[in-house]
Here is the input.
Amino acid sequence: MSKDTEKKGITSWIDERLPVFTFINHNLRDYPTPKNLNYFWNFGSLAGVTLVIMIITGILLAMQYTADTDLAFDSVERIMRDVNNGWLLRYIHMNGASMFFIIVYIHIFRGLYYGSYKYPREILWMLGVVILLLMMATAFMGYVLPWGQMSFWGATVITNLFSAFPVVGDYIVTFLWGGFSVDNPTLTRFFVLHYLLPFAIVGVVALHLVALHQFGSNNPTGIDVKSDGDTIPFHPYYTVKDYFGLGVYLIIFAALVFFAPNFLGHPDNYIPANPLQTPAHIVPEWYFLPFYAILRAVPDKLMGVLLMFAAVAVLFLLPWLDKHRVRSAQFRPYYKQFYWLFFVDCMILGWVGAMPAEGIYVTISRAASIYYFAFFLVIMPILSRYEKIGELPSSISSAVLSDKFDKGTESYAK
Amino acid sequence: MKKTTIQAKKETSKIDEEKRDFLFVTTAGLAIAGGAATAISLINTMNPAKDVLALSTTEVDLSPVEEGQSLTVMWRGKPIFIRHRSQEEIDSASNVSIENLKHKATDDSRVENPKWLVVVGVCTHLGCVPLGQKIGDSKGEFGGWFCPCHGSHYDTSGRIRKGPAPLNLEIPPYKFVSDDIIKIG
Here is the structure.
């Protein structure tokens, strides 16, 4: 405090009354951060940047878009053809959604590998799952807005999921639609919610950051910070690292926007919505495919829907399913193998989700779904009890510096 | 001060400061240039789009408009007042002493063909549409138009004669394509 008052000028005058500069200093400058973070720790800030990109492009798009079943498709085509740089705006927003999910999925898999969900970061993790759910809802409703064939039938299929619930199902679906089919009332409310939810995400992100800064970042060793020697100030070390990562990320993002803007989309969505004809092969956007695969793997309608929701909901329970005292998979030989198997399993689920629901694909999706849940509900609790681990490094510094753990550090230093 | 910061300071002294400054300036410079280019591209989406610009000319057939009648057409989303003036109206507009006008302009300078007056039908005060186009409308004290919002009176040449408006009714760019057809814009 005495140091602050010594500073002269308008900055300290403001800071004394509204401590914004102190806040920035604590959280982005001096903020002690483990010195061994690898590039997987870039994905939080990348997700934040992507959220900002999505909100800016989204606000500009909303200025040109018309939420009306008769006008929506044409208004999107007008954005593509007539609006100055409208194609750029839309392609950034469209591919931004995919980039957002890539970033967030890597962010989640990183947390899963290094045990970032464990004590004392349980609420931090759960807020992250809330953000994921909000993102999914926002992305789904955004995909409906262009009112193409995939928009319409995607909306029909996803809202019909709720019809699986006994007794109340039909009422819920009618309520969601605001009518007896996906129609104008559905489109207008989806537009409003698609605009609103990102701001809710911003709010939860703020809480996510408050929870993060309570105990600071986890790190690749999963060992707690024990002294000042284990940390470095956030600025300039991690601002520069985040900035470098951002540059690489934006190159990939721009390559997608400029050279393959429709690579991740579906051509059928350039056909205007037709309530009388369902496309022959209907698939959700790629980021929903693993969950879609779980839905289709189950022969019972209600069970399929419940398991699909459970696939996300189980993440909330993660801190209590895995109670092993060691965080990082680096020091858990068995967990590490099951983890990578789980990673491959998610890829397989994504792949079969894009395949027709018949023949061998059904069998594969069932096996993959069973492993998905077994990983969380069976393997994790068993490993927490029985997995033996070797000697842990005494601190982050000793892990980074000693030869003994060179082998461990090698895998993430690349 | 934290120990780590002191260590960091020591490290700095071994580093080539000039190279570091160069890297810093080029990095920041490129970031600003890239950010500015992106911002300009994005903000430009709010400028008039191609379909809006495509509406910037309108052709009007004057043949059905009899002497003494008026026609209102849309151009760029604004009303254009076209009046087929009688000889009496032309005389009253051209016989005014320029010195007495708030916004000095001869009637001659405001028309291509004295029979036809073409003005933008937006009051130069605060943008209301003046009355005087329809039969039965008040045409104000000078036989032209009267703005009901704040009481501006325009004469038969569309010039401001009384009231708060500072300027004469604007003349849109137009030309006679043939004797009976004008192209506005």
Summary: The domain at 53-184 of chain B is CATH 2.102.10.10 (Rieske Iron-sulfur Protein).
